[in-house]
């Protein structure tokens, strides 16, 4: 089938202030480091109203068990008119998918579509194609080369981005996602009517943490004003470009909140 960010305070340790909303469903009183140095961020643009999507949703479930891959589901809303309104969809995800298409210079906006490390797109159900795209992206200059760490301490998340070791990689935007690891949905209408489908690592909110300029930097994100039920994980990623013009993924980290 063809065709992203609320009002918590983010305080950068160097003094800059940011605001936004982060939906996290628990206050964690211990420090737990995130998994380090993943090789890929895999974003799936999917829809509960798309009959071609369930196999891709399963692939993302499989990939989410691989600690070297950060797999994310970003449900879009442009198929809602087909008879079933996607209960997880967010118009920001539809905009993100279109922004990727503009940056590639094509009109390839469809579901299920996977974008690997912010650049290559693959049919979401094509597991071999996704693995191939990950392998090719590994060869790109600077792709997933910046170490990112994330930890929980009391009522805040600490985010650190290391200094770049590559001269060509000197800036990027830092974003944090709150995610629900597993969301079963009973679909009553539309192309997938009668099915119960489990969606994996569903992004429930996005918050810009700050801008990274190639030097080691850290920020804190307070956990308050819980906005989404079911959120049990968080992902931080550093991406070249901007929200309107997203580029390659430079680094990322994931942590469980339970």
Automatic annotation (TrEMBL):
SUPFAM superfamilies cross-referenced by the UniProt entry: Thioredoxin-like
InterPro entries associated with the record: DUF1223 (IPR010634), Thioredoxin-like_sf (IPR036249)
Alphabetical list of PANTHER family matching this protein: LIPOPROTEIN LIPID ATTACHMENT SITE-LIKE PROTEIN, PUTATIVE (DUF1223)-RELATED, PTHR36057
UniProt-recorded name of the protein: DUF1223 domain-containing protein
């Amino acid at each position: 089938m063809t065709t992203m960010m609320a009002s918590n305070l983010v305080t950068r340790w160097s003094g800059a202030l940011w605001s936004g909303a982060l939906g996290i469903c628990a206050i964690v009183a211990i420090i737990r480091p995130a998994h380090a140095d993943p090789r890929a961020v895999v974003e799936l643009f999917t829809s509960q109203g798309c009959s071609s999507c369930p196999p891709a949703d399963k692939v993302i479930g499989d990939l989410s068990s691989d600690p070297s891959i950060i797999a994310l589901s970003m449900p879009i809303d442009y198929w809602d008119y087909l008879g079933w309104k996607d209960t997880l969809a967010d118009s920001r995800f539809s905009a993100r998918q279109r922004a990727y298409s503009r940056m590639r210079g094509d009109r390839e906006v469809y579901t299920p579509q996977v974008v690997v490390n912010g650049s290559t797109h693959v049919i979401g159900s094509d597991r071999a194609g996704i693995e191939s795209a990950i392998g090719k992206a590994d060869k790109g200059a600077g792709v997933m080369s910046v170490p990112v760490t994330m930890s929980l301490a009391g009522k805040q998340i600490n985010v650190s981005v290391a200094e770049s070791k590559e001269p060509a990689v000197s800036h990027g935007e830092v974003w944090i996602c709150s995610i629900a690891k597993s969301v079963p949905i009973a679909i009553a209408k539309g192309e997938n009517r009668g099915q119960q489908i489990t969606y994996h690592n569903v992004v429930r909110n996005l918050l810009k943490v700050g801008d990274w300029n190639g030097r080691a930097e850290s920020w804190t994100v307070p956990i308050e004003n819980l906005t989404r039920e079911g959120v049990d994980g968080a992902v931080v990623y550093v991406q070249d470009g901007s929200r309107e013009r997203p580029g390659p993924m430079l680094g990322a980290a994931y942590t469980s909140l339970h």
